[in-house]
Amino acid sequence: MIDSRIDAFMCVHSRDIEYLLEASLRSYQQHFPDKGNLTMVTDNPAALRAFLDAKDLVPGAAVTGDNDWLSASELELPGWFRQQIIKLRAFEFCRTEHFCNLGADTLLLRPIATTDLIDRREPVLYYSSHRLPDLHYRFEKQRLRNVAKILGVEPARSFRYVDFINDFFCFKREWLIALNDYIASKYGSNPYVELLKGLSASKDQTRFGEWTLYSVFLLDVMHQSPTMRDARGGAYLTQIHSRLGLTLSRLDSKIVHLVQKSFDPNVIRQKLMKVNPGAAQIIGATAWADAGARPR
Q: Could you tell me which InterPro entries the record lists for this protein (predicted)?
């Protein structure tokens, strides 16, 4: 019998150990029924463990430090790059055949079924379509080109999709291991340091991207044929980048990624009450609702 459980992991910077994280974890507990083990990786394990215990969150979750999974030279990289390396190394601490990365600023608003994530016994590869070549599309297009250069391929197949950003991203163990082996064969025993040293997390974000790297590797190096789905189709994923975006969104998707941390939770709760009262209650049950909007 095939084990239907799916492990998950979360990279949590110390600045994320607050109310939005609580809402994210409560949504995970309620809306991911086929969950396996949860591993949380952070730069401050003591603070994260104290937060989880105080809120009675995800009992049994493993809390580990960045230094458990990164080399000394990798630890010297900016935090944004360190988290990406940890995601690419998740096969070392997740045990199921498939496993998902949950963002610390991401809410599961409705139940996520195994069929949302797995098709034909392989993870679905989600992309986000763009109706117009907007600024975000151009950003991801440049990232795709840079990642393809890292892999040494023409992104012929992945160029049809471009934007693979998804804060509930499901990996296949076998393919992620193959990617790491491939990168090591091209760049040596410490490949991510070779690729990322000297880069700025604020200025060089198009130079690298873990989900884009994995996706281009699958499509244009391994020539795999995973099920492709548009994350924006069928109200699966919403990404909120601005207050205007929040105003315009109905929040009727299964997953929402809150790119900014300063959104007013009461606005989100009021919107959800119209389309998803259960998810609104998750937010109302957290200290986030009492904290209100706070500058970051």
A: DUF6492
Question: What whole-number distance in Å separates Cα of residue 134 and Cα of residue 140?
Answer: 10
Sketch the domain layout of the chain as residue ranges: 6-282
Q: What is the mean pLDDT of the chain?
A: 93
Written as one letter, the residue type at 41 is V
CA distances from 59 to 19, 51, 139, 223, 291 (A): 17, 12, 39, 40, 24
Residues 213 and 144 sit within 8 Å (Cβ to Cβ): no
The position carrying tokens 């995800």 is 58
- For residue 96, pLDDT beyond 50: yes
> What are 214's two structure tokens?
């994995």
Cα dihedral sign, 167-168-170-173 = positive
pLDDT in tens, 156-178: 999 999 999 999 999 999 999 99
**Tokens representing residue 71 in the block:** 């080399």
Q: Which of 71, 64, 35 is nearest to 49 (CA)?
A: 64
Q: DSSP alpha helices (H): ranges in the chain?
A: 19-31, 45-55, 72-75, 79-88, 114-117, 135-151, 173-187, 191-196, 210-216, 243-248, 265-275, 277-284, 287-291
The answer to whether the CB of 48 falls within 8 A of the CB of 42 is yes
What the block records as the tokens of 207 is 């130079």
* Dihedral Cα 180, 159, 227, 3, nearest 10 deg: 20
CATH 3.90.550.10 fits 6-282, yes or no: yes
- Quick count: other Cβ atoms within 10 Å of Cβ 245? 15
* Residue 147 CA: distances (Å) to CA of 50, 209, 215, 261: 38, 7, 10, 28
Pull the structure tokens for residue 65: 């430090």
